[in-house]
Write a structure and sequence with these properties.
- By secondary structure, the chain is mainly α.
- It has one domain.
- Helix content is 83%, strand content 0%.
- It has ten helices and no strands.
- Helix 1 packs across helix 10 and helix 3 packs across helix 6.
- The longest helix has 39 residues.
- It starts with a helix and ends with a helix.
């Protein structure tokens, strides 16, 4: 395992992993609102529009270790003031969200040594399908969260179940969702599909590293908090952007680990 970790690090450095992470983080920020609006449209088939927006934004911001209330308020203001709707609007949202998948594929191809295909239309259709799957996953995470909260409320009334059990259940749900998203990205986004075992190992590593990154980032903000001191009112925005960048580093490094496993086929 140490040799594979060393291979992952060497691949990460050789492929300019930090610059790849910066590009991926940029496109995540660009595509964030279209993805959110698409997820709201999907959840809106079950819930009211306002409730759907709240649930989708909450599912996203729960993964951010700090400033959750401030980020939630800012994203809700953007989502609730949207003017795009209908089937045509949904198609536009899917189109504007596809650059995130295209960038992720470019990163994975760079690390896996896969030559990019020239069929632009095929890639666009695949990316659009993955964006829809991403929206469905957010819906599934919201549904699982509602079920967990419903069971908690029922248990408080009828069963002597400790509250911390449900807190651990919430953490487990968060890890499961992140693991599934990483697995789908490593397994199916590249043009040449990765072996299931390598994708599982990469997803597990990414999930663990992401959880560690969240805890360290939360500790840093609470103990040091330089973003507020340096950037003032923009501190929340800068912290948000930096955590997205750290998340991209986790994704790219774990992808390098997957590439190291694939190289031993």
């Amino acid at each position: 395992m140490s040799l594979k970790a060393g291979g992952a690090l060497s691949r990460f450095i050789a492929a300019d992993g930090f610059f790849l992470s910066a590009g991926l983080a940029f496109f995540f920020l660009v595509c964030l609102i279209p993805v959110l609006l698409l997820a709201v449209a999907i959840v809106g088939f079950v819930l009211s529009e306002e409730r759907a927006a709240q649930e989708v934004v909450r599912q996203l911001t729960r993964h951010f270790p700090v400033y959750q209330k401030q980020i939630t308020r800012a994203l809700l203001r953007i989502v609730e003031t949207r003017t795009i709707s209908g089937m045509l609007g949904t198609a536009v949202l899917v189109l504007f969200a596809t650059p995130l998948l295209s960038t992720a594929r470019l990163v994975l191809h760079r690390l896996l040594g896969v030559k990019a295909g020239r069929n632009f239309l095929h890639n666009l259709v695949v990316d659009a399908g993955m964006v829809v799957v991403l929206g469905v996953l957010l819906f599934a995470a919201s549904a699982a969260s509602w079920l967990l909260h419903g069971l908690r409320d029922l248990a408080v009334v009828t069963l002597p179940v400790p509250a911390h059990w449900f807190q651990w259940g919430s953490v487990g749900l968060s890890l499961a969702v992140s693991f599934l998203m990483f697995y789908l990205a490593y397994r199916f986004v590249p043009r040449r599909h990765v072996r299931p075992g390598a994708a599982l190992a990469g997803a597990l590593l990414a999930s663990l590293l992401w959880e560690i990154a969240k805890q360290l980032f939360r500790l840093y903000i609470r103990q040091v908090g330089l973003y507020d001191q340096i950037y003032g009112p923009l501190g929340v925005l800068v912290a948000f952007v930096m955590f997205v960048y750290y998340t991209a580093i986790v994704f790219v490094f774990s992808a390098a680990f997957v590439a190291a496993l694939e190289a031993r086929r």
